[in-house]
Amino acid sequence: MDQVKIGKFIAERRKKIGLTQLQLAEKLNITDRAISKWENGKSMPDSSIMLELCDVLKISINDLLNGEIVTMDNYKEKSEQNLLEMVKQKEHSDRQMLTLEIVIGVLSVIILLSLTFIAAFLQMENWFRITIIVFAFVVSITGLMFALKIEQTAGYYECGKCHHKYVPSFSSVLWAPHINRTRYMKCPECGKKSWQKKVLKK
Predict the structure, then answer these.
(1) What is the reported pTM?
(2) Which H or E run includes 178?
(3) What average pLDDT does the segment 175-190 reach?
(4) Given a cut of 90, is residue 182 above it in pLDDT?
(5) What is the tens place of the pLDDT at every residue in 104-138?
(6) What is the DSSP string of 128-150?
(7) Nearest to 157 by CA among 141, 137, 180
C-alpha cells in the first residue's frame, strides 16, 4: 500500500466534505497531529478507526487502502492487490518478529550465565548471592517465554504428514520436543504427530 497516495486521498476527501484536520480529528476522537501524519504519508490510520474514518469521508475501506475511489470495473483487481499487499506485510512483520525472538533468547541466556558467574565467583554475602541467582533465573525464564510466544504466533507450523499450516496453542509449542524451530506436535487437521517446521507463508 502506498502511504503517500493514501495520505493525499484522505486530505482530498477531507477538503471535499469541508472539514479541517482538527474537525476530522474531533469526529474520530484523536489528535489533529495524527491526521497530519496520515496526510503526509508518515503513518496509516489504525484499523480500529478505519471504518469510522471511511464513514466520515464517505468512502469504502477498499477506496481508502487504494488511495482512490475504486470503480466496479476494477474492484476485484484492487481487492486482490490489497490482499496480496497485506499478506506480504504480514510475512515481513513475522520475519522481523522471528529475528527479535533470537535476540531476546540470546540476551536471556547471556544474562543468566553472566549473573550466575558473578554469584559463583565473586565474594559476597550468601543472601545476596541467592538473590542474584534467583533474579537471573526469573529474568532469563521471562525472556525465554516471551521469545517462545513470538515463535508461536509469528508465521505458521507445517505438518510433516498432510502439510496443513496452522498456529498452535502456546502450551503445544512449550511442551513439544524440538530442534531449533522444528517441533514434534500433533496436527489439528490430520490428527497425526510429526516434526513440524516453522514457515512464513500459508
Answers:
(1) 0.63
(2) strand 178-179
(3) 94
(4) yes
(5) 999 999 999 999 999 988 988 999 999 999 999 99
(6) HHHHHHHHHHHHHHHHHHHHHHH
(7) 180
Whole-angstrom distance, CA of residue 140 vs CA of residue 118: 15
Show the cell assigned to 145.
Answer: 517465554
Q: Cα(184)–Cα(196) distance, rounded to whole angstroms?
A: 6
Catalogue all structural domains in the chain, each as residue range(s) with its CATH number: 3-70 (1.10.260.40), 89-199 (no CATH)
Q: Are 11 and 45 in contact (CB under 8 A)?
A: no
Q: What is the C-alpha to C-alpha distance for residues 91 and 85, in angstroms, rounded to an integer?
A: 10
Q: Which residue matches cell numbers 538473590?
A: 131
Phi-psi region of 105 (alpha: psi -120 to 50; beta: other; left: phi over 0): alpha
pLDDT in tens, 53-92: 999 999 988 888 888 887 776 667 777 777 777 778 888 8
DSSP H helical ranges for the chain:
3-16, 21-28, 32-39, 47-57, 61-66, 75-121, 126-153, 170-175
Q: Which amino acid is at 2?
A: D
Q: What confidence category does residue 142 fall into, taking pLDDT thresholds of 50, 70 and 90?
A: very high
> What number of other Cβ atoms are within 10 A of residue 156's Cβ?
19
Q: Are 163 and 189 in contact (CB under 8 A)?
A: no
Q: How many angstroms separate the CA atoms of 199 and 168, rounded?
A: 13
DSSP assignment of 181-199 = TEEEEE-TTT--EEEEEEE
